[in-house]
Amino acid sequence: MAEKSKPPKQLTLDLDEKGEKSKPKKSTSSYKVILSDAPAKKPNTTRKKPKVTTRSMTVKIPPDKQPVAKPSATATPAKKRPTPRTADQPNPHVVQTRARKRPATQTAKPKKQQVVPPKIGKRTSYRPPLSRRLLLPLVIALLVVTVLLLIYAYYEKPAILAPSTTAVEERDVVALTIENGMTARTVSLLLEQLGVVEDAHALLAYFVEEELATVIQTGTYVMERNLEFNEVASMLTNTEKTMDVTIPPGFTLSDIDGYLANRLDSDEGAFLEAVNDLATAYQLSFTEGWLLSGSYTVHRTRGAEELALSMYQEMLRALQGLLDSPILERYSIEELLIVASMIQAETQEVTQMKGISSVIHNRLANGEPLGIDATTRYEIGDWENPIPTEALETKSPYNTRRKEGLPPSGICCPGVDALRSAFFPEDTPFFYYLHGYDKAIHYAETYEEHKENITRYR
Fold this sequence. Notes:
Blueprint: E1 9-15, E2 29-35, H1 130-161, E3 173-178, H2 184-194, H3 200-209, E4 219-224, H4 229-236, E5 242-247, H5 253-263, H6 270-282, E6 294-299, H7 303-320, H8 333-346, H9 350-366, H10 373-380, H11 389-393, H12 416-423, E7 432-435, E8 441-444, H13 447-457
Antiparallel strand pairs: 1-2, 3-4, 5-6, 7-8
């Protein structure tokens, strides 16, 4: 039989609150501790929700009736109620970094002024990068090279395309005419007056001694100054056989020089030198175009000088019959000589010359480029092969496709028909002409009509 369980022992403890023993206990607290061998019941772990009462009441006591608390040595001082923290005050729960206060005796250092660096490029020790330092010299070098190339293209290229003629040295020459009835004494005095010889009496004595006083020939001569007596006598008393030479219309001065070199066995360049002396003696602004083509009689030993002078004199005679042209009110004789040379170089058909002259004068009056390829051919010295594109695109004095107005000189020796066509052109409205494969010339008033002629006749 099981043993009857004993009731649990009970132990009662009286715990007094702290305080003096002599004083009566105002209150006691009793705690009952039960020791039992039986398993303790599990307490109710369900936590009840506490009830909170939020009611409050404020009692105001007048200051005169408030009790005065006596200070007590053992009493703990009442805790001060913390004042509310403003926004300017630091938060005590956040770690603050405080600036260390300097001792009062130590003077505070003045605040360091803020240094403002100078702008880039103003610093004394600033050095721009290498690329920027090389940029300005490179730009200057490119500009210099460009200017040099432009100068070269402007001056050198026309020189390359210039007519290929032999260089001729300008000499001090004079022109004189010996007429019928002039004696050897008169001729000697004239030569002294013009500076051909220094002593007229000595020249006359030479003519008499050499028995040349009665064989002096009349005519026009171009002589250098300070010649020897034998040179003067050779020019004035030439008794050699003569020969006839024919200069076709359209020949240039270079062509005539080559022709005389083969026909008269003269030195190459002799005719060009004679023409240059002629221009100096008569003060001509250019020579090409001032000589009239035709047939002439010259002495074999002095063929170049006589031919140049004869062609110039024939040009003067031909111009005498053209001075009544009304177009001389607008253009000078030299300008019309240039026009005549262009007409002659463009065609050999007399019936086409006045029509071409009309187109040239219409373009000149309207301020349009002439567009005559013959001037460019004269410039490059090639009358047979196709004109290079570079020559047509170069703005040179003789490229009438690019340059307005007339070229600086004639381009060949004109004939009488071309000369008359330049002074008396037809009155037409045409501004274009075209030589077709049918060997005819076709005129047009507008460029559209000219293009139709190209399509139809080329």
